[in-house]
Amino acid sequence: MNYKLVAIDLDDTLLRTDLTISERTKQAIKASMAQGTLVTFATGRMYRAALPYALDLGLDLPLITYQGALVKYVDGREVYHRPVAKDIAKEIINLVKPTGIHINVYYDDQLYMEEATDWGKKYANTVRVPINLLPLPEGIKEDLTKILLIGDSEKLDEIQTVLAERFQDNINLTKSQSCFLEISHPQATKGNALKGLVESLDLHPEQVIAIGDNLNDLDMLEYAGCGVAIGNAVEEVKRIADMVTKNNDDDGVAEVIEKLILGQ
């Protein structure tokens, strides 16, 4: 197959444990782009937290960020923004707050939380963005790009069940890590965003490689002609993948590109 586009998740996929991209992977991506392959990110990260990696690699396609809620070019041109409605966001926060789970909210590509908890500080340090404090939910004055709940995995699973029953078709719920429950617009998924990008480029799913590791990557891998699970992916992702590569610390992304794009 002559693949034309590669969409890559960032954390635990492209990025190593130390949050860097290996030289081998950089060279593989740049070599594939030099021969005409299109490359982009599909990440749950904020746009501003994905941008430095995109600039380092020289990407020029729209970046799929916030699970697909914000798709935006490296130069700042916005393709679209699909936020969570303000009133629904407030309802969700009122339901979640009594559980003690940490809550991040995002708008205008800024990170907000009511209190800089240990969870909140660890998150901000990882994605390298400043913390803004905001009373929740009363401080919310506009629709939110995303809500992120951080805490114990089993507790988050219980909350996910409650929110799914209560809000049904009004939100999208997915786990991006065992301790991260992502809440976004119902159409804000990586798969939907990738589909829109592929169609805008007049390509077909069969010409696409998507690489990821967690539950928020499932619909993207199912959509792509070749869905690749990184070696450290969760079992649900490995089960539906067309291919399983090495893990994120062993150049799994480079291995895929070298094999399927560069023919090495």
What is this entry, summarized?
It contains 10 helices and 14 strands. With 264 residues, it is α/β, with parallel strands linked by helices.
If you had to describe this structure to a student in words, what would you say it looks like?
With 264 residues, the chain is of the alpha/beta class. It folds into two domains: 5-81 and 188-260, Rossmann fold; 86-184, Hypothetical Protein, Haloacid Dehalogenase-like Hydrolase, Chain: A, domain 2 (2-Layer Sandwich). It is 36% helix and 22% strand. It has ten helices and 14 strands. The chain has helices at residues 10-14, 23-34, 47-57, 86-96, 118-127, 153-167, 190-200, 218-223, 235-240, 252-260, and strands spanning 5-8, 38-41, 63-65, 70-72, 78-81, 102-107, 110-113, 131-133, 146-150, 172-177, 180-184, 208-212, 226-229, 243-244. The strands form three sheets. The protein has a six-stranded mixed beta sheet, sandwiched between helices. β7, α5 (118-127) and β8 (131-133) form a beta-alpha-beta unit. The longest helix has 15 residues, at 153-167. The protein is globular. The model has no long low-confidence stretch (mean pLDDT 97).
Low-confidence stretches: none
Beta-strand segment tally: 14
Strand order of the largest sheet: 8-7-6-9-11-10
Domain module count: 2
- The CATH class of the largest domain turns out to be Alpha Beta
| Strand percent estimate | 15-25%
What is the CA-based Rg, rounded? Answer: 18 Å
Q: Count of DSSP helices?
A: 10
The N- to C-terminal Cα distance equals 15 Å
Instruction: State the secondary-structure class.
Output: alpha/beta
Helix content: 25-40%
Question: Architecture of the largest domain in CATH?
Answer: 3-Layer(aba) Sandwich
Per CATH, the superfamily of the largest domain is HAD superfamily/HAD-like
